[in-house]
From TrEMBL:
Keywords: DNA damage, DNA recombination, DNA repair. One of its GO terms (biological process) is double-strand break repair. Pfam families: RecO_C, RecO_N. It comes from the Bacteria. It comes from [Eubacterium] hominis. This is DNA repair protein RecO. Belongs to the RecO family. Involved in DNA repair and RecF pathway recombination. One of its GO terms (cellular component) is bacterial nucleoid. InterPro entries: ARFGAP/RecO, DNA_rep/recomb_RecO_N, NA-bd_OB-fold, RecO, RecO_C. The lineage of its organism: Bacteria, Bacillati, Bacillota, Erysipelotrichia, Erysipelotrichales. Residues 7-80 form the DNA replication/recombination mediator RecO N-terminal domain.
Length: 244
């Protein structure tokens, strides 16, 4: 039996001399494991469609009882060439894929989120807005939300001064402790906007601007603290940030 579907490569692992093992996020949100034989050979026709974060149409030699399917052929629907030409964007795309892979959502929204995030990333000069927005949406999908409507310790909406990772949100100046992270009022506004936003609000956030890698790091800190899922590709993002 042959089975065909559309999906994005979210994991690529070399296997043996010429093969690879792939994880592909199907357009219905299900993650399919695929054995792709011979795609590391120079003359492989399937190799371009099997690269990380490529959106392709897949044809499998499907076995219902197997957890690893065999690739028959694949054709590119979107290669995201403009992402591959930019090292920072390429690293962000790899981060998106790893985050989706290890979050194990397997819902249609997970596919829509990744596809739309990649579509935005390929066409924008400044990738920080979509990086921050992607992270805050993933956090929300894990049930992790920074409390931004007032001080999490006393409830006041005045004099907001810092963010507490331990207590999960905004802190006023009167309640602030030495281990809380102090931010400017502009930065705190950025966090509040992000935590209220959905993917469809990207253009509004882009117009407002002012989003930085430091904002992403704080959002990731919440993910790391409360989801407890290690994401290796963030290390390369940090290296690139330090080099820029």
């Amino acid at each position: 039996m042959n089975d065909a579907f559309c999906g994005i490569v979210i994991e690529y692992r070399e296997y043996r001399e010429h093969d690879a093992l792939l994880s592909v996020l199907r357009d219905d949100g299900v993650i399919i494991k695929i054995s792709a034989k011979g795609i590391q050979k120079v003359k492989s026709k399937n190799a371009p469609a099997c690269q990380l974060f490529t959106y392709s149409r897949w044809y499998l030699n499907y076995r219902e009882t197997s957890t690893m399917q065999s690739l028959k052929s694949a054709e590119i629907l979107e290669s995201y060439r403009h992402i591959r030409e930019d090292l920072i964007k390429q690293s962000i795309a790899a981060y998106f894929c790893e985050m989706i892979l290890y979050s194990h959502f397997e819902t249609p929204f997970a596919f829509d989120l990744l596809k739309h995030a990649l579509d935005i990333l390929k066409s924008q000069d400044d990738p920080m807005v979509i990086l921050c927005l992607f992270q805050v949406i993933v956090n929300r999908m894990h049930g992790i939300e920074m409390q931004c409507d007032g001080c999490v310790r006393c409830g006041t909406t005045k004099g907001i001064y810092a963010i507490s990772l331990k207590d999960g949100g905004f802190i006023c100046k009167m309640c602030a402790k030495g281990y809380d992270k102090v931010y400017s009022s502009k930065d705190l506004k950025c966090f509040r906007l992000l935590n209220k936003a959905q993917l469809e609000h990207y253009d509004i956030l882009k117009e407002i601007g002012g989003f930085r890698f430091e904002h992403f790091e704080q959002l990731y800190a919440f993910f790391e603290e409360y989801a407890g899922i290690p994401i290796k590709s963030i290390q390369f993002l940090r290296i690139l940030k330090d080099m820029s």
